[in-house]
Amino acid sequence: MLRIKNLRCYYGQIMAVKGVSLSIRKGELISIIGANGSGKSTLMSAISGLHRNWTGEIEFSGKSMKSLSPPAIVEGGVSLVPEGRLIFPPLSVRDNLQLGGYTRYRKKNGREADRDMDRIMDLFPILRERAGQPAGTLSGGEQQMLAIGRALMAKPSLLLLDEPSMGLAPLMVEKILSTLELLKKEGLTILLVEQNAGAALQIADRGYVLETGRVVLQGPAADLLCDEEVKRAYLGNDYGEFTDGRA
Amino acid sequence: MINDMDRNERLQSQLERLQSTLNRAFRNVPFHQSRFRAAGIDPGEIGAVEDLAKLPFMRRGDLGDHYPYGLFAVPLRDIVRIHTAPGTSRNPSISGYTRQDLSVWQRIISDSLAAAGVTPNDILQIQLDPGLANWARDYRDGTETLGAGVIPGSQLSIEKRLMVLKDYMTTVLITTPAGALELAEYMYRNGIHPNGFNLRTLILVGEPAAAAEKRKLEEMLHVTTWQHYGLSEIPGPAIGFECGRHAGLHLHEDHIIAEITDPQTGAPVPDGETGELVLTTLTARAFPLIRFRTGDRARKIKEPCPCGDNRMRIDWLPERMDDLMIICGVKVDKQQIRDQIEGAFGPALPDYRFLKTSYNFRDLLEIRIRIDQRFFSDEIKDLEKIRSDTAERLTDNLGIPVSVVLCETV
After folding, report:
1. Are the Cβ atoms of B20 and A215 closer than 8 angstroms?
2. What is the largest distance, in Å, between two alpha-carbon atoms of chain A?
3. Considering its fold, how many domains does chain A have in total?
4. In B, residues 259-298, which contact A (CB 8 Å cutoff)?
5. A84 and A139 share a domain?
6. N or C end of chain B: which has fewer CB within 10 A?
7. For B199-239, how does the pLDDT look when each residue is reduced to its tens digit (9 = 90+)?
8. Which residue among A114, A137, A155 closes a domain?
């Protein structure tokens, strides 16, 4: 469904993503883990068309995304839940959701979009309760639900999530991740970028580990969860050393 | 499973694995880092599988030069098994496995056995010489992963081996072509009919069996033969396997990338032409090998396999591209043999020559040493001591059966 080949992303002269290749098959949930500055968010921005200074190939459903604008990418079936949610605080929860389905309402598919909004509110009942409330008054977890709901309003076939657990209480993280699992079961393809490696790999089919803009490990999520290097670097154990002194 | 993938999916999957392998090798192994730098290549520049050809080759000698742990890409605490074998240089060869690596290689072997029709209902007997002890362990583990019963290798006389084969109702035997031939000839000479056995599958490892040799074994033992290909260094005994069509060896392309290159120029040879098999590991965590020159001679089979599995197929050819001999499935460097002989005799080195031969249908390295005046003694036992000491020393150090013959001319 999504195929990235040798992607390099630049900020001026600085290369933040250094030749990354990855792929997602239909219905998969893929987790990308890595420390701050590893290039995860840049990668997401490039896929969603927000970051334009890149070389390599990004193909979605067999078509190059090189020249597509962010709205065209959304219309093509890729929605991003950005890091930090970026909801519209003064607008109501309902308005935020409607904005997520903007292209559909514009195309007079409002009835279908309304049905989807209903479904999203079933998925996150708190959004229904607070539908008329300004989004800025929601808690962090509720705002995250809104951000996911807003992305789902575009009826994506690929959902990108950038650090959805950031700053959330463990209970809320659990709720968000279990919702992603549910969406995957319903057939949605998901690319999840997370610093919470353990949680992200628990629900993923496969994973990629990014380090300073490069993929240093990849494979089935279950294998990565057992990998000593992943455990030490991302799951809370201490670092080891090479016998000859190499760190 | 990668064998269900189309060509593009496979190339993408190989590229992803290759890039992470190169990034980790570059980050963790100074040997690889310095080679990449010397070649002026950053791993990030490898944007396609074909770009692999930009990287320098690894040679067997590199393994000896960085003995023991210099090529490990993980801290030693992550290693759960270390294999050591006689090797082809002064140092033993070594390979390390993380827990993940073991699991991957066990699955590879299990899949290769399944391709030969082995099922959990089978009983496998492993009969490999001590030089292939690591492979015997690998096959044991792979068989257990498959869920079949396994009789691990043990050093039994041929009579006892046959007894086990019959009484334990072994259905699958894993051995070298030489080992299988020894068994078949022994049975033939002693009037032991294969109908009294349950054996139906013979898996041949260590060296390529010629078609005529396979036919002979199939007729003598009433079995179907299946060839496996592997390398101690890669490390695993079944990265190449035959499918039910017996039309070359499929390679586990989800775990290795194979190139066939011209040994002189290093350039890839056109598909279908013979060259040296060069392998790059894609999933080995502890001991990644990048463009490792195997010395094995092979040819890529261009035509798709009728079995439908579109993984690359090769013909593994008997002649070698390097200075190695294969005896009982074990690779031995000719220079290493020379070093051992020279080490045994010191400055009083006599004329000698060596060759691969067989005794009672069993592979043997025969070393013919010319006895000159210096060695003559009126005591026969002195000469016999020279002969037996030399044979024992070489057998120990090379990990293969060695016979020393003292003669007046070599």
Report:
1. yes
2. 67
3. 2
4. 283, 285
5. yes
6. N
7. 999 999 999 999 999 999 999 999 999 999 998 887 689 99
8. A155
- A150 assigned to some structural domain: yes
Asked whether the beta carbons of residue A228 and residue B74 sit closer than 8 angstroms, the reply is: yes
Could you tell me the two tokens for B291?
Answer: 């463009």
Residue B292: partners with Cβ closer than 8 Å, 6 or more residues away: B57, B58, B59, B231, B233, B234, B278, B279, B280
B107 touches chain A (CB under 8 A): no
Which domains, and CATH codes, for chain B?
A: 2-321 (3.40.50.12780), 332-407 (3.30.300.30)
Residue of chain A minimizing CA distance to B21: A216
**Looking at residues A70-92, what average pLDDT do you find?**
91
Indicate if A93 and A200 belong to the same structural domain.
Answer: no
Contact B103 A228 (CB under 8 A): no
Q: Closest CB to A241: pick one of B17, B75, B99.
A: B75
Q: Are residues A139 and A166 in the same domain?
A: no
In a domain, A247, yes or no: no
Q: What is the CA radius of gyration of chain B?
A: 22
Give the residue among B132, B188, B203 at the shortest CA–CA distance from B158: B188
Is A244 part of any domain?
no
Q: How far is A100 from chain B (nearest CA, A)?
A: 33
Give the residue from A155, A186, A209 where a domain finishes: A155
Measured over the CA atoms of residue A17, residue A22, residue A23 and residue A27, the dihedral's sign is negative
Same domain, yes or no: A135 and A164: no
B83 min Cα distance to partner chain A (Å): 17
Q: What is the pLDDT of residue B344?
A: 78
Q: ipTM value, please give it.
A: 0.86
* A15, A23, A218 ranked by CB distance to B20: nearest: A218
pTM value? 0.86
H helix and E strand count, chain A: 11, 10
Q: Which residue from A19, A227, A228 is facing B47, i.e. has the nearest CB?
A: A19
- Cα distances (angstroms) measured from residue A198 to each of A33, A222, A232, A236, B157: 9, 10, 11, 9, 53
For residues A88 and A117, state if they share a domain. yes
Question: Which residue in B has a C-alpha nearest to residue A217's C-alpha?
Answer: B20
Contact B371, B408 (CB under 8 A): yes
| Residue span of the structural domain in which A39 resides | 1-69+160-238
**Among A214, A227, A230, the residue to mutate for chain B (most B Cβ within 10 A):** A214
State the CATH number of the domain containing residue A172: 3.40.50.300
- Residue A76 has a pLDDT of 92
- Residue A205 domain flag: yes
Handedness of CA A191, A197, A201, A206 (dihedral sign): positive
**Pairs from B390-397 (Cβ < 8 Å, separation ≥ 24):** B390/B341, B390/B344, B390/B345, B391/B367, B393/B340, B393/B344, B394/B337, B394/B340, B394/B341, B394/B344, B394/B365, B394/B367, B397/B86, B397/B340
Q: Are residues A93 and A45 in the same domain?
A: no
